Request: fold
Amino acid sequence: MQIIPLIALRVGRAEQAATVLPGEPVDVPEDEARRLIDRGFARPGEPVAIDTAELIDAIVDAIADLDSESFGKDGKPNVKAIEAVLGRDITAADRDQAWATYQRLAADTADDE
Reply:
């Protein structure tokens, strides 16, 4: 569930925990969100419209940052690896669209050399 913190919050587990500042939307498990809202530390978040072109561009950039371990046997980047770089959820369809764009850009760059 998405919430908007009213105070600085630490979210995530141990080494992967991150600080979320007041006013920054963040997704947390439903039960945790309810506790934070009930205690007055956060308010329910609003669904945010996402520009598909911007999302695909962000995924393409994330793919460029991945190491070889972040790719599956089929050669495609793992959705979870991309999500870790972006800090947000994506779909396999988003990944596939960005992967096609990434491959096209890589081929264009190779042709220019």
